[in-house]
Amino acid sequence: MQRFGWDRKNDAFVFTMKGNIPVRVSWTFAIPAALPFLHDWSTRPRSALTHTLIFAALLFLSVFLHELAHVRAARRQGIGTQRIDLYLFGGIAWFKPGAASPYGWAWISFAGPLVNIVLAAGFATAYYLFARSLLPAEPDGLFSSPPPRPDTLLEWTFWLGALVNAVLAILNLLPAYPLDGGAIARHLLAPRLGAETATRIVGFCGVVLSILRFAVIVPAATAGILIWIPPSFRPNWRAFRAAGNKKRAPQHPA
Question: Where are the domains of the chain?
Fold first, then answer.
C-alpha cells in the first residue's frame, strides 16, 4: 500500500493514516479553494494568492476533520473504514461492511457536521477574543458582526474559519442526498416508515433543495463569485423515484 506520494492512476495525492486507512486528495479539491478569489487575481494578485492559500488550508482542515469524525464514530460502532476521498465536491468516507443500528448510522452521519459546529464556535471565539483585540475599540461592543473586509489577516483568517465551518455544518445537515442530513433523516425515519418511504421523503426534500440552491448560485455568479452548493438534482430524483437502490458501501460526504 502506498504510504505517501502521488497516485497516477487516480490523479490524487495519497497518504496513509494510522490503522492503514488511505486518504486520497484529488487535484480537483484545489478548484473550490481557488474559485472564490478568482476575480481578484487580475487586480490584486498578491492578495488573491494569500487569501487562496489561507482558504485552501482552512477548507482542507475543515473537510478532513469532518471525515475523521465519521471514521471515529464508525469505529465506536465496530465498523472499519476502507478509505477517505477528498475531491471537488468535498469528502467521502467509505466504510467496510458492518452492522449498526439505524440510530448508530445516524450518529455516524451526524459526527461530521458536529465537528464543523465545534470548529465554527472555536474560530468565532478566537475572532472575538484575539483578533478584535488588535483593532481599535468600537462602541458597538464585543458581539458586533464581523466587517465584510476585515482589516487584519489574522482577523480575516479567524472570521473565514468560522464561516467555512458554519457553512459546511449547515449544508451537510440539509435533508438531501448525498449529504449527511439525508442519511440522518433516512436512518431516523426508516424504523417507523420503512426504508423505501424514508428514501423517497429525503429524495423529495433533496429535489426541492436542489432547485432552490440556484437562488444563491445565480446571484453569486452575477457578482463574480463562482460557487457550487449541494445538493445535486440527480441522486435525489432517483431516490424520489425509488430507483438505483443497489446496495453500496455507506458513504458520508462533507
Answer: 4-240
